[in-house]
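so my prof wants the structure for this chain in the tokens format not the other one, which i didnt know existed until like an hour ago. anyway here's the sequence
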Amino acid sequence: MKNQIVPLVKELIAIPSVSGEIDKAVEIIKLVEKYMDGYTVTPFVSNHFPSLLYSNKSSDTRNFKFILNAHLDVVPGTADQFTPREKDGKLYGRGAFDTKAGAAVMMTLFKELASKIDYPLALQITTDEEVGGEDGTKYQIDQGVHGDFVIATECGSNFHIIHEAKARLVVKLIAHGKASHSAYPWLGDNAIWKLQQAIYNILQLYPTPTEATYRTTVNVTHIHTLNKEQKDTAYNRTPAYCEAILDIRYVPTDKEIIVNKLQSALIEGVSMDILHNSMPHRTDENNEYVQKLHKIVTDIIHEKLPLVKQHATSDVRHYSGISVDGIEFGPIGGNQHTDDEYVDIKSLDTYYDILKSFLLA
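here's what i got, hopefully its the right format
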């Protein structure tokens, strides 16, 4: 059945299933349903986002030993990125690595093993991971889906087992000042300068690293000013209002202190709203399933890769919220969220073999 994987990945890539484009989400879900025809499935819809739960048991089953998790939504890309192409053993296209290739492997493997194993196994397909996973994985969990162990086919793994990942905190900083003619700054109170000081204070607490390091980071991703009542495009007015969005990735040990530390860095006239705060993900590296999978990976690729911690989030964190262990584990690839995203074609067969050995073991 492994010969079905690459053609399936190409079909998935060809659908521009950008997060929030509901018509394309529906289209790609229909493709999955066609490929998985004949297998027990429960469809879900939350806030128009569709997702699927396949089971090798009855449709009433909500508790599983293992859950295979994959998302089919992608970040925006140019039109040509949705035309899959092969070159030098790599398959290029938006979503190839994040995570349509991994999804294709899981779908194909589920079809092979569903009737061969006696424990409850689930395949979870979602369309909203890139925007938080609240209406896919999280919604299914809220409907009673539970497991002993979850494997999410996330990008960035490259056969490393990711057993811990940072949480994501998104906050809006709001600065209030006083408007004036910009030629008379002493008559006003510039909201931009207030916001700048607050951001400076925060970055003193969490300085931007110059190389990869596993600690809490703060990134300013949006900043703009406007008159509170209406948009103000005048260049000669001291702004009375300014706001910024901070995308913060924090390590699990900062969970209980991060919000208070941010608040302590603010100055008078600057407030903070929390827009999003996800759970960090952590599974003990000595977990029996982590160790079993690690041994299988080592035996198959003939290399003992270290367990790793990840900077980005995944839907595994939603399972952490209900004390279900899980990992991120996917094939080899690169350039996710950028141009020339690709997956290594040969690695897909290896990925298939690893997951198959694990599920059968």
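also thought this was worth mentioning. The domain at 167-277 is CATH 3.30.70.360 (Alpha-Beta Plaits).
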